[in-house]
């Protein structure tokens, strides 16, 4: 009977903190897109893609975090692997908002750099947890 606990406390804490941070990130980024659309000449055909990326990212964040928590707590590699896959998608969208959205402010750079760092750390912990569950 192997009763050792394999779920990762650092991963659990980071998923929780990322969930809280993402709410702040989403609201701050949305506020800045609204601000930029008022202050700068924001072409209408550029506003929609920037907003779409932000909302798509928010939609991805829910299953990403849910599967991360579920996989970690149940010590199951499949949900954790799916969460890792969704993280890759979130990273791509985050990089879009960091580099390719219509106007990138200093605050955008800070918000996205923190989120990318959290995604990176979280991904490393997920890979480590998956390796522990499989072995």
TrEMBL record:
InterPro entries on file: Uncharacterised_TM-17
Keyword Transferase (UniProt): no
Subcellular location: Cell projection, Cilium; Membrane
GO biological processes: non-motile cilium assembly
Residues forming coiled coils: none
GO cellular component: ciliary transition zone; membrane
Entry keywords, A to Z: Cell projection, Membrane, Transmembrane, Transmembrane helix
Membrane-related topology note: Multi-pass membrane protein
PANTHER family, A to Z: GEO07735P1-RELATED-RELATED (PTHR13531), TRANSMEMBRANE PROTEIN 80 (PTHR13531:SF8)
Protein name as it appears in the record: TMM80 protein
Organism: Climacteris rufus
